[in-house]
Each structure stands twice: as C-alpha cells, then as structure tokens.
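Internal tracking record. Fields below are filled automatically when a chain is submitted to the structure queue. Please do not edit lines marked as system-generated. If the sequence contains nonstandard residues, flag them in the REMARKS field before resubmitting.
Queue: standard
Priority: normal
Entity type: single polypeptide chain
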Amino acid sequence: MITGFNSDVKYRGLVYHVQTEDKGKVNPLIETLIYRGGEILASRRLPYAELTEGGPVTEQAISRLMEEQHNTMILEVKRGGFSPTTEEGVIEDLSLDEIVLAFLAARAAK
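SYSTEM-GENERATED OUTPUT FOLLOWS
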C-alpha cells in the first residue's frame, strides 16, 4: 500500500479536506474523498486491476495516478464544485496556471 495524499483547500471561507489513498494489492483501487466539516461530500474511485494483469505495476505509476486524481479533485473544489451555494462562474483562490487549466478543460468539454 502506498502512502496517500491529504490536503485542506479553502473556498469562500470554507475548508474542504481532500483525501486520496490506495486500497492496496488485494483491492487495487484509488479512492479520493472530499470532506467538509466531517461530512463526505463526494468520492471518486479509480480501479486499476486491469493494469496489474500485464504484470506488476510500479509504485511510481500508482503514485502518479493517485496524485493526478487528487489534484483534479482539488481543482474541482477550487472551481466551486462542492460549494453550498448554486452560484457559478466565480473562480477564486486559483493560481494563474489553475485558471488557464480550468479554461482549457471547459473549452475541451464543449
């Protein structure tokens, strides 16, 4: 099992906790949970059993998948995806790189 990632992310004065972990060789799954005030708001699971069928997967490859999923969920928090308000279109607490990535992702989705 690989050590996971834990991040606290502020959005509009609220603190969200993003936690990503590997469930191990017996249960090859990467799971990311988003918490606010101890309540789970969302989860994302990425099974990677099919990667192990071709032989052993390196810890580095699994760690890279974990980091990508973790950072994606952080970006969703920063874009307001889990905000208690329904107001959209406001992006705050983002670096310029994150704003550009959010713009490109939205453009690619169209």
